[in-house]
Structure formats: structure tokens, C-alpha cells
Design goal:
The protein is α+β, with helices and mostly antiparallel strands and 204 residues long. It folds into two domains: 57 residues, duf1285 like fold (Roll); 101 residues, duf1285 protein (duf1285 protein fold, Roll). The protein has three helices and 15 strands. It has a six-stranded mixed beta sheet. Strands 9-8-7-12-11-10 form a six-stranded mixed beta sheet. A three-stranded antiparallel beta sheet has the order 13-14-15, with no helix packed on it. Strand 10 and strand 11 form a beta hairpin. The longest helix is centred in the N-terminal third of the chain and has 15 residues. The radius of gyration is 24 Å and the shape is globular. 19% of the residues are buried.
């Protein structure tokens, strides 16, 4: 045969040996284990509306934003870093780095599934790995809703803030459910109930 791993039509090519494969694997592992060089603070800012600035100038190309977003990490202390195999640096984020700008849903009740599209066109379904979180003060009339996109290195995940129009759509799907003896208002997705807040007392 003139093709395959032994060089094909090149009779002078060296045959593939276990030793050669071992050297290749060892080199790849060494490259993978390389610690990225620390670059300190980088002049990036992600604003609350999801726009990215570099040295105060808006990054208008969505493809470039998506590229940077693919290497965004979150550290144990909650800080955000851009990290490639060669370099890493800390950046500033006003709120969450991404914004959920669209929502779709199928089914209803406990069988309902909510899906969200972010400003970089990442689509996630609210479930155990991508829970909804409603921040803000206890009993606040205007909660701050978020959905987890991926975990960070510690307890701080990478999230998308749910935009106000999407939150209004979400609130329209809310229904009451008893949670640990308290009647809560929330939404179902993927068989999980996500409480938005305690049911208001109409007599108050």
C-alpha cells in the first residue's frame, strides 16, 4: 500500500514507531502544561449592556468580541481574565460579561424548557448546569436576573444578565409553587423550579 502512516508514496519517510509517538505525546503534554505569562491588567472593559471596550474604544466587530469571549475565565476571587495558552490578563466587568437578549420556551408547567440567547449568540437552556439566579435585596420589586453560562474556577460562575424585556417575558410565565414551606413565585425549566421571590401578600 502506498498510503497510511508509514509515509505512503515517500519511500524515504521515517516509519511511525512507538518511540516517535511517545515523543510527540510528551511534547504536546509539555506545551499543555505551560503556565501562561501574566500580563497584569489589560485595558478591556465589558459594560453592563454587554459591549466591549478596548482602551475606551468600542469593539464593533462581533467576531472579535466572540473571539475574546471564548477565552474569558473567572478566578476564585470573582475577577475576570482573558487567558490564552501563552498569556493571561485581568479585565474589568461592570456587571455580568454577557446579556441574555432573547428567550424561547416549549411546553408548560414542570415540563417547560426555557432557552436563552446571549448577545454573542450563545444559546443555553435553564437547567441544573445553567440555573437562573435572581439577585437584589430581599423583597425587591425589581430583582436582578441572571443565567449561568459556565462555571468559574471557584464559586463565582460566568453568567449572562437577563435583559429587562426578556425578564418581562420570563415574569409572564411565573407561577406559584411551595418551596420549603414558603409559597414562592417562579418559573419551571427542565423539571426544576427557579424561585423569583416570595408570593406577594395581597392583604398587606
Amino acid at each position: 500500500m502506498k498510503d497510511g502512516l508509514t509515509g505512503g508514496g515517500e519511500p524515504d519517510a521515517a516509519p511511525v514507531t512507538a518511540e516517535a509517538v511517545g515523543r510527540t505525546i510528551a511534547a504536546a503534554q509539555q506545551r499543555a502544561a505551560r503556565v501562561p505569562e501574566e500580563c497584569g491588567d489589560l485595558p478591556f472593559l465589558i459594560k453592563r449592556d454587554g459591549s466591549w471596550l478596548y482602551k475606551g474604544t468600542l469593539i464593533g466587530r462581533k467576531e472579535l468580541v466572540c473571539l475574546f469571549a471564548s477565552v474569558l475565565k473567572r478566578e476564585l476571587d470573582g475577577s475576570y481574565w482573558l487567558e490564552t495558552p501563552a498569556e493571561r490578563g485581568k479585565i474589568d466587568v461592570e456587571d455580568a460579561p454577557f446579556v441574555a437578549v432573547e428567550m424561547d420556551w416549549t411546553g408548560g408547567g414542570e415540563s417547560q424548557v426555557l432557552s436563552f440567547r446571549t448577545n454573542i449568540d450563545e444559546v443555553v437552556c435553564a437547567d441544573l448546569d445553567h440555573p437562573l439566579r435572581f439577585g437584589g435585596a430581599e423583597g425587591a420589586r425589581d430583582p436582578k436576573p441572571y443565567i449561568r453560562l459556565r462555571p468559574g474556577l471557584g464559586s463565582f460562575p460566568v453568567e449572562a444578565r437577563i435583559s429587562r424585556p426578556v425578564f418581562y417575558e420570563l415574569a409572564a410565565l411565573a407561577e406559584p409553587h411551595l418551596v420549603r414551606g414558603r409559597l414562592m413565585l417562579g418559573v419551571w425549566s427542565s423539571g426544576i423550579f427557579f424561585p423569583m421571590g416570595e408570593m406577594p401578600n395581597d392583604d398587606a
